[in-house]
Task: inverse folding
């Protein structure tokens, strides 16, 4: 007898939600490799703790809701992997774990679970951590310094080049070092060449749509080139901003989170543009050095409205098309009659 | 005589519901703004409850007196009279608040005065016009108790999590989450409190139903 | 609509080996004796248009694609002045080839049937329409360019192709689709005075040993058909109809196969088709051929807010199942829409009474 009721269609695409999310996990692995290369085992341990905290809180929440936890639903693993990459490698473990628990319980499950949350859980977790412990999240160790895996970190931590930009100065790091990511910054965001590879992998696999990243990056790059934050030339400003800021990583992994992204093409283009505008505004007038997470949380609010208005526009187009179609067929029947 | 006693009991019981089952903040969602924004330390919480009590109880009593006015007097005039009394009651409230903690008024800021026009009495005053003075007084007391329980619970939790202190004195808690003092966390804590309250009320209801069923069985 | 070439999905056709095997017959009734009484001559050339329509009525021929009686269809076409009659052999769903196979193995009957139908309508242009399978590298059957002098036009595009067929023939004039199987029955009705007592079905699926196309008596059961073709294992479930739009057969021992069945499939119950919660990826929106938003339609159906569905134009849904096919969370969107439609229909009279 049937285990559960089969409904049409009876052939289905081979891809499942599991393969879809595994693509994102695979795209994040090179970033963890880079973090390990720069900061050693502590980076991997942070990732491990974060994923464990996310999975445990996810399971607890599912049991409280009365649902059965399903192993192949790895959305909490994805959140767990994204969050530590935005923080410094020397961040204490309790920061990461608290941010994860907040993200999974209060942002993902309270709003409805997988695909239903209004806000991006990883961005909201990072925002929580940045609001609670800004000094821990934003002080970075130098790359290739050996960090203790457990216990307090003995290396000197200091503000990174993003702090310089925030204050209005220009970072004095060599361009090659900037491009290769050999400077003090968030654990996984510093190497933009690897990030670009991840972007192309995800686009090729169809795990993210092309519309939102296109409008987002187009507007961000134009703004960096034409209106630099600090007194320097356009292209140099772009290099500095892109390598030290969180928005390249955010535009690939945070912006395109399936639950929060609008579904219609035109709405996605508008969403990416809106996110870019908010990011630029927060950069100019914000109170912190890395503000993409906050800008994204603000953009998430408009996701549904953009979809709704896009649908309204499409309805008008549909009706206009149907009207021309009926006129066409009426003309044809009149011709023969 | 017995009928009167029964109505008295019924009314008493109905107002007692306001504390838990019909809690003004957690169930009906009135006076949400001060409860969410102002309640991040215990001292602030006490200040809020004080203002609330000193404003709401007299206003509801006044409302029951205003019920004796002729029908011609429009509703907005009555509401304006209540609002005037509420604003006037802020003066003794502030004096009392200074006794509890010197800078209470400053830390609460505008929310101290905003409690004067809280939605709790705005909603319930027109209903109190039909009641006797004693019942309005009792309703005001129950509302204050309900509001206070909610605000004190929320402010204790928030102070503990955000600063690791209780009434300004440090505790041995190892971890602090300073962001809990912000408004977004206030919403989250109040929401969680509402969920916890509903769960507790449901469980009490289940237990009471079980007890009643057993009693029926014993009687039969 | 916009996105003609990009909307829809490419499906693995899985039509071999059923398509290249010769059409076989499998009767359980006295096929030879099923004739109708008539004074008409058994010669198509001697008959006029109205007489052909009368013969179609006497033979009770049903078009297998839309269930309309053939004589009604031809009558209406004659009145409307149809300019193109197209023999519909578009099998765009996987496994199904019950229109293509009879057309290839009974070419005379198909082509002559089409000419008779054309005569009945008023001698318009005639074509056969066959789906140009996009994704089958091992399709061993070569589709010829014409069948007994009637040109075959290939329909391009992704699944669902049926709805776009009319656009292909738009340039030629006002077109009408008639199923190929009903044309074969029309030929037999005219030349042999035969009633339609049989239908063409594809018997296929993971569990069938010898997938093939069969001409069977109407009313035979799927169990009998599987006995004819052989089952490798007990099927998980039996589907009547196409693999994208068919229905599960609850009782294969007694369900009567009919003209509209088109295919009988024995499929394995694969455990990999798990149900996740909708993850909001939006792929259903990208592929919908009618440019609808299945994500929101499904969400409102699950929330029970059926009033919102009018905004999303749910009534325009053609039930192709593309959204369910492509969904990574295996949500049954197409089925939910079907259920919601029935629910909305049920609720409507109550609202009128309330007024």
Result:
């Amino acid at each position: 007898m049937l285990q559960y009721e089969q409904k049409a269609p009876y052939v289905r695409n081979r891809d499942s939600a599991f393969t879809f999310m595994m693509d994102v996990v695979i795209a994040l692995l090179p970033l963890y490799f880079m973090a390990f290369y720069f900061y050693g085992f502590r980076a991997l341990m942070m990732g491990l703790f974060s994923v464990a905290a996310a999975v445990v809180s996810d399971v607890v929440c599912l049991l409280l809701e009365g649902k059965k936890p399903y192993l192949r639903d790895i959305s909490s693993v994805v959140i767990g992997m994204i969050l530590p990459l935005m923080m410094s490698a020397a961040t204490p473990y309790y920061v990461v774990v608290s941010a994860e628990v907040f993200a999974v319980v209060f942002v993902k499950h309270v709003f409805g679970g997988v695909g239903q949350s209004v806000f991006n859980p990883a961005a909201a977790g990072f925002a929580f951590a940045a609001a609670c412990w800004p000094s821990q999240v934003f002080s970075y160790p130098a790359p290739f310094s050996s960090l203790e895996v457990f216990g307090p970190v003995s290396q000197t931590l200091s503000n990174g080049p993003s702090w310089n930009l925030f204050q209005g100065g220009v970072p004095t790091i060599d361009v090659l070092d900037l491009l290769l990511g050999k400077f003090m910054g968030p654990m996984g965001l510093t190497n933009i060449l690897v990030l670009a590879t991840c972007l192309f992998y995800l686009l090729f696999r169809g795990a993210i749509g092309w519309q939102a990243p296109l409008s987002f990056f187009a507007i961000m790059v134009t703004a960096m080139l034409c209106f630099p934050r600090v007194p320097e030339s356009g292209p140099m400003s772009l290099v500095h901003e892109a390598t030290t800021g969180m928005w390249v990583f955010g535009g690939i992994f945070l912006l395109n989170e399936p639950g929060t992204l609008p579904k219609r093409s035109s709405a996605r283009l508008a969403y990416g543009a809106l996110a870019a505008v908010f990011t630029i505004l927060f950069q100019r007038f914000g109170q912190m050095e890395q503000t993409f997470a906050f800008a994204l949380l603000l953009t998430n609010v408009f996701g549904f409205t953009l979809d709704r208005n896009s649908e309204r526009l499409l309805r008008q187009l549909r009706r206009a098309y149907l009207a021309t179609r009926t006129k066409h067929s009426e003309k044809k029947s009149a011709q023969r009659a | 005589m017995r009928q009167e006693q029964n109505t008295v009991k019924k009314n008493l019981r109905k107002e007692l519901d306001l504390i838990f089952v019909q809690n003004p903040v957690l169930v009906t969602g009135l006076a949400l703004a001060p409860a969410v924004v102002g309640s991040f330390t215990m001292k602030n919480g006490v200040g809020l409850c004080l203002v609330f009590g000193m404003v709401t109880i007299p206003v509801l009593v006044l409302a029951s007196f205003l019920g004796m006015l002729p029908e011609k007097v429009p509703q907005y005039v009555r509401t304006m009279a209540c609002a005037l009394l509420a604003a006037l009651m802020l003066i003794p409230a502030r004096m009392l608040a200074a006794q509890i903690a010197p800078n209470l008024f400053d830390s609460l800021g505008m929310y101290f005065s905003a409690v004067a026009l809280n939605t709790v009495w705005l909603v319930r005053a027109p209903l109190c016009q039909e009641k006797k003075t004693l019942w309005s007084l009792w309703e005001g007391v129950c509302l204050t108790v309900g509001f206070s329980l909610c605000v004190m619970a929320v402010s204790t939790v928030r102070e503990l999590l955000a600063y690791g202190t209780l009434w300004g004195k440090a505790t041995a808690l190892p971890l602090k989450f300073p962001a809990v003092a912000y408004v977004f966390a206030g919403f989250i804590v109040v929401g969680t409190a509402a969920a916890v309250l509903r769960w507790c009320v449901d469980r009490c209801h289940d237990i009471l139903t079980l007890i009643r069923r057993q009693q029926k069985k014993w009687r039969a | 609509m916009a996105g003609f070439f990009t909307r829809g999905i490419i499906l693995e056709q899985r039509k071999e080996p059923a398509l290249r095997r010769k059409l076989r017959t499998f009767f359980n009734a006295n096929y030879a004796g099923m004739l109708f009484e008539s004074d008409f001559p058994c010669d198509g050339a001697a008959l006029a248009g109205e007489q052909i329509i009368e013969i179609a009525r006497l033979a009770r021929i049903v078009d297998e694609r839309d269930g309309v009686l053939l004589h009604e269809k031809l009558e209406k076409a004659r009145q409307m002045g149809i300019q193109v009659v197209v023999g519909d052999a578009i099998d765009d769903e996987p496994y199904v080839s019950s229109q293509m196979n009879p057309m290839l193995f009974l070419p005379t009957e198909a082509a002559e049937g089409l000419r008779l139908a054309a005569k009945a309508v008023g001698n318009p242009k005639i074509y056969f329409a066959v789906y140009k399978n996009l994704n089958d590298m091992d399709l061993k059957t070569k589709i010829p360019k014409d069948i007994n002098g009637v040109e075959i036009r290939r329909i391009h595009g992704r699944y669902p192709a049926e709805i776009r067929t009319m656009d292909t023939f738009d340039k030629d004039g006002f077109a009408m689709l008639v199923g190929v199987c009903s044309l074969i029955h029309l030929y037999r009705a005219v030349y042999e005075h035969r009633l339609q007592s049989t239908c063409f079905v594809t018997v296929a699926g993971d569990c069938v040993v010898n997938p093939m196309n069969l001409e069977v008596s109407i009313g035979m059961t799927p169990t009998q058909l599987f006995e004819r073709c052989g089952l490798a294992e007990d099927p998980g479930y039996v589907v009547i109809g196409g693999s994208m739009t068919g229905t599960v057969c609850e009782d294969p021992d007694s369900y009567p196969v009919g003209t509209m069945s088109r295919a009988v499939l024995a499929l394995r119950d694969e455990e990999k088709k798990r149900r996740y919660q909708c993850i909001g990826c939006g792929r259903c929106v990208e592929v919908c051929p009618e440019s609808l938003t299945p994500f929101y339609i499904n969400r409102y159906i699950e929330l029970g807010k059926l009033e919102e569905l009018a905004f999303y134009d749910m009534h325009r849904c053609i039930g192709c199942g593309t959204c369910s096919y492509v969904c990574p969370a295996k949500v049954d969107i197409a089925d939910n829409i079907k259920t919601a439609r029935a629910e909305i229909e049920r609720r409507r009279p109550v609202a009128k009474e309330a007024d």
